[in-house]
Every structure is written in structure tokens, then in C-alpha cells.
Write a structure and sequence with these properties.
five-stranded mixed beta sheet, 9 strands, alpha/beta, 308 residues
């Protein structure tokens, strides 16, 4: 499936040793910077309009870097996830749900995925949207397949086409019988191919529905990343693997590793910041079934407490 893989042969830095804990750097952000970051860097899902996070344990796999660098990137994602409170699959033979691909031909890779495995692109409604979604515009870019989990814990992949449901209805007809004044007619099955059914709580603030990551794909182009050390890239990739940011086009006032590849940004850091880690911890503490506003409110409080 992911066949266009090429080693990062030009990366000349020494192979780093994976740290035992997450190293962070940081400057205390203002309350406005926290609010702006939450609004611009927490992309709600298309189906529920809520913030997604990992519910199933993560299993990262890095390809295209060779036998030394690839394990380091995967291990770094695991370390950051554990520090943030995200679930981690400890089985060495686990099925990957986070794929990090370094390739010299990223657009060709995405064109092939769009043709053969469109689910890896995430949510789209038509061919025009899928083409736009598959366009590679950044040196490191991420795609998210999300799922909606209902009150009973049942997941459904977010898609413009639902799983489909069938409903049996009784319609009165010419041969209807009316014992005791109740009309009984023939049973008719209605097929609703694009519909889906979910169990909800009925509560306006917490309806029992939550958004979860099902698969994350991260594609990197080595030739555009030669100025960065592998440790820096691993931290950046970890943020993308554990959270879904909005468009990464503006230089955030909030101190974050996500400023790394923003053109012309003067607020660059080479490591995860205290703000990044506070954000991830808040993400994995917030109530997943709450409304978007309530989720952001919870995260704002948690981040403010952590960054005092």
C-alpha cells in the first residue's frame, strides 16, 4: 500500500538516544495566547463537531528512515503519548494505527492512496473534496480518519456515506385487519443506505457521543527537512500523531513546536514546549462526550492550571 518509501540518507546528525521522559522548553503563555491556540489548533470533527483524541491504544509505525531513525521516531511518539495520558499499545506486534512515512515523492503517494485507499484521507463528500484533501502542501502533513463512538461504546467510521440501517414499518392497506380498533397492515422494510443509528443520552451538554481517531497518516518529504534534527522532527510528528490541529499557516503566539514549519515565524522551538505538553494532557483529560465549547473550556482550565 505505502510503497513509495525512501531513506533519509542526507540526514547526517548522530542517531539520538530515545529519552526516558519528554523534554520540554517553554515560556509562560498569556491567557489570550491559550484561547487563540485552542480556537485555531483544535480542529473539530466533521460529523460531531467535537475534538477527537485516541481512545484505542496507539501503535505507531515509521517507514522510509532506515532501521535506526525509524524506531526512534516511533518510540518518541509512544513516550509523548504516555506522558500526555494517551493510551499506548505495548504489544510489539500490534497493528499500526499511526503511520509515519518519509518519501521523496509525497504527492505520488497520496495520489495512489486517493485511488486505492481513500479512507486514509479522512472525511470528504465528493471527488473535488478528496482531490483537495490529498494535495500535499507542507513538508510534513497529516491526515486523520475519525470515528464516532456512541453511548454504548460502539464506533462508526466518520464518512459521508453511513453504514446504512433497515427499519420495519407497518402500513395499513386494503387487507388490513382492525381488531379492537387497531389497524394491522402489511410489514414493509425501509432501507436507508446512508443513514446510521447511535445511542445517545439526550443530555444537551453531554450527549454520550464522542470523536476518536481511527487512523492517522503523517507524510514527510526529506529534502525539505534537512535543516532540522531528527529529535525536533520526532517531537513535531508526535504532536500531529496525538492531536488534530487546524491549518498550520499562522505563527502562533502560544509557544508550540507546531510553529516549526510556519514560513517566516520567529517563535520557533526545537523541542516540545511546556505549552504543548499542557495542551496534550488537557486533551486527554477533558470529557470526550461534552460539546465543543465545554471541551475547550475544560482544556483551557487544565492548561491554565498546568502553566501557572
Amino acid at each position: 500500500m505505502l510503497a513509495l518509501l525512501y531513506p533519509l540518507a542526507s540526514l547526517s546528525q548522530p542517531i539520538p538516544k530515545a529519552p526516558e521522559s519528554v523534554t520540554v522548553t517553554g515560556v509562560k503563555p498569556t491567557e489570550k495566547a491559550i484561547d487563540d491556540f485552542l480556537l485555531s489548533h483544535t480542529a473539530p470533527t466533521r460529523i460531531l463537531g467535537k475534538i477527537a483524541r485516541w481512545k484505542t491504544p496507539i501503535c505507531p509505525l515509521t517507514m522510509g528512515l532506515g532501521k535506526n531513525y525509524a524506531p526512534f521516531v516511533s518510540q518518541r511518539i509512544r513516550q509523548v503519548a504516555a506522558q500526555a495520558g494517551a493510551p499506548v499499545d505495548e504489544d510489539k506486534n500490534c497493528k499500526p494505527n499511526i503511520r509515519v512515512v518519509f518519501t521523496t515523492r509525497p504527492q505520488e503517494l497520496m495520489d495512489n492512496l486517493r485511488r486505492d485507499h481513500p479512507n486514509y484521507l479522512g472525511y470528504y463528500e465528493n471527488r473535488l473534496q478528496s482531490a483537495k484533501l490529498a494535495a500535499v502542501t507542507r513538508p510534513i502533513q497529516s491526515w486523520y480518519t475519525t470515528a464516532t463512538i456512541d453511548l454504548r461504546g460502539r464506533p462508526q467510521i466518520d464518512s459521508a456515506q453511513g453504514a446504512g440501517i433497515s427499519i420495519d414499518v407497518i402500513l395499513p392497506g386494503p387487507n388490513s385487519i382492525s381488531p379492537g380498533g387497531v389497524t394491522i397492515g402489511a410489514t414493509t422494510r425501509l432501507e436507508l443506505p446512508n443513514a446510521s443509528s447511535m445511542n445517545v443520552s439526550g443530555n444537551r451538554i453531554n450527549d454520550g457521543l464522542s470523536s476518536s481517531f481511527f487512523n492517522v497518516l503523517i507524510v514527510a518529504e526529506p529534502a525539505k527537512l534537512l535543516d532540522h534534527e531528527i529529535g525536533t522532527l520526532a517531537d513535531y510528528i508526535a504532536m500531529l500523531a496525538l492531536s488534530q490541529p487546524g491549518p498550520l499557516e499562522d505563527c502562533a503566539e502560544f509557544p508550540t513546536i507546531l510553529n516549526l514549519l510556519v514560513p517566516g515565524c520567529a517563535r520557533i522551538t526545537n523541542n516540545l514546549t511546556q505549552g504543548d505538553l499542557a495542551y496534550l494532557k488537557a486533551l486527554y483529560k477533558m470529557t470526550p462526550a461534552n460539546t465543543l465549547a465545554a471541551q475547550r473550556g475544560e482544556m483551557r482550565f487544565q492548561m491554565q492550571q498546568a502553566l501557572k
